[in-house]
Amino acid sequence: MTTQHTPGQHPPDPQQHQDHRRPNGPARPRRTHAVDTIERELTAFARRARATAARLHPDLPLVSYTLLAHIHDQRDCRATDLATHYMLDKSTVSRQLTTLEKLGLMERRPDPDDHRVQVLHTTDAGAAALTATHASRHAAYQERLADWSEADLARFAAYLLRYNNSPS
After folding, report:
1. Strands (DSSP E) found in 57-165
2. Domain tally for the chain?
3. Burial 59-96 (b: 16+ CB within 10 A, else e)
4. 3-state secondary structure of 76
5. I need a labelling partner for 9 at 20 to 30 A (CA). Which of 24, 79, 100, 148 fits?
6. Would you say residue 149 lies in a domain?
7. What is the pLDDT of residues 13-59, one digit of tens each?
8. Where in the sequence is the domain holding 125, given as residue range(s)?
9. CATH number at residue 74
10. Segment 100-134, tens digit of pLDDT
11. Sign of torsion, CA 61 62 66 72?
């Protein structure tokens, strides 16, 4: 029996569906089916995340949004800190920071302890945009998860933490 699932809807219960077949293909092990489902659902999640960044500013890629949020949360970070934290090339970070500066969302300031170094700060416009976007995202998550039990939410949060903290 082949099951169809639309991203974002309740997934089928894997215990009820023993036979996971590809169209015109052999049965697959449950683990393979589960990993395929995870891949598909994370792709749908990433599309929504990119749409969130676009709502902040239409010219803002997801990586820039992520860096801006990090800059806002971690005061006085440097470009090298971002490159290390996100495992990005310094040139990639530099391009993204230039975009954020041109959009008026971030600025560089001399480090108060070492004026040779620049630290990154969100501008008032950047902070306001992040706050508005966070509120919008939070409301969307609340709505999307409204019928989930506290136990389901806690398990989902724990699984996401475990996944994101796993070695690459």
Report:
1. 106-110, 118-122
2. 1
3. ebebbbbbbbbbbbeeeebbbebbbeeeebeeeebeeb
4. coil
5. 24
6. no
7. 544 444 445 555 566 788 899 999 999 999 998 888 788 777 777 77
8. 21-140
9. 1.10.10.10
10. 999 999 999 999 888 899 999 999 999 999 998 88
11. positive
